[in-house]
Backbone:
C-alpha cells in the first residue's frame, strides 16, 4: 500500500502503539488499583479506535474490517462494564482501592 | 517490512510489561494489569492478522475479546467474595 493511505495507516498504527505504551507507563506510575483501571480503558478506546481506523483505511468495507469494528464495540462497551464490576469488587474488598 | 508488522513488534514489549505487572502488587492491582494485558493482546492479534495476511485469524481476536468479558467478571467476583 502506497501513497496517502499508506501514510495514514502508518500514522494510525503508530498512535495505537503509542497509546499502548502510554498505558503501560501509567500502570507503572499509578499506585491505586482504581487508578490503574483507567489504563485498560484508555487502551480500549484510543488504541482500539486507532487500529480500527487503520483497518478501515486499508480494507474499506470488508468482512474482516466489520469483524474489527465488532471487536472495537466489544472492547469499548465491555470495558465500561468490566471497569464498573472490577471497581466495585475493589471497593468492597479494600475500601479505598489503594495498594 | 510492513507497518502492520512494525506495529505488532512495537506492541509485544507493551504486552510483556503488562504481563510482568500481573505478577506484582496485591490482587486488585494484578487484576487491573490482567485487564490491560487482555486489551493489548486483542490489539496485537488484530494487527498480526494484517501483518501475516491471514484473514481467518481475525476470529482469534474476536474470540479473545468475547472471552475476556466473562473471564474478568469471574475474576472480579472471586476478588470480591473469596480472594
Residues:
Amino acid at each position: 500500500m502506497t501513497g496517502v493511505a499508506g501514510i495514514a495507516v502508518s500514522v494510525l498504527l503508530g498512535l495505537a502503539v503509542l497509546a499502548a505504551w502510554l498505558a503501560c507507563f501509567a500502570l507503572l506510575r499509578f499506585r491505586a488499583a482504581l487508578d490503574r483501571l483507567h489504563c485498560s480503558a484508555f487502551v480500549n478506546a484510543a488504541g482500539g479506535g486507532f487500529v480500527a481506523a487503520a483497518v478501515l483505511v486499508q480494507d474499506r468495507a470488508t468482512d474482516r474490517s466489520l469483524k474489527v469494528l465488532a471487536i472495537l464495540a466489544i472492547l469499548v462497551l465491555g470495558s465500561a462494564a468490566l471497569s464498573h464490576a472490577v471497581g466495585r469488587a475493589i471497593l468492597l474488598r479494600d475500601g479505598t482501592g489503594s495498594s | 517490512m510492513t507497518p502492520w508488522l512494525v506495529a505488532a513488534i512495537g506492541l509485544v514489549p507493551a504486552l510483556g510489561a503488562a504481563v510482568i505487572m500481573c505478577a506484582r502488587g496485591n490482587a486488585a492491582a494484578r487484576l487491573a494489569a490482567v485487564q490491560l494485558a487482555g486489551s493489548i493482546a486483542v490489539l496485537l492479534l488484530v494487527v498480526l492478522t494484517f501483518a501475516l495476511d491471514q484473514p481467518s485469524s481475525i476470529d482469534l481476536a474476536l474470540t479473545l475479546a468475547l472471552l475476556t468479558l466473562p473471564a474478568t467478571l469471574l475474576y472480579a467476583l472471586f476478588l470480591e467474595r473469596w480472594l
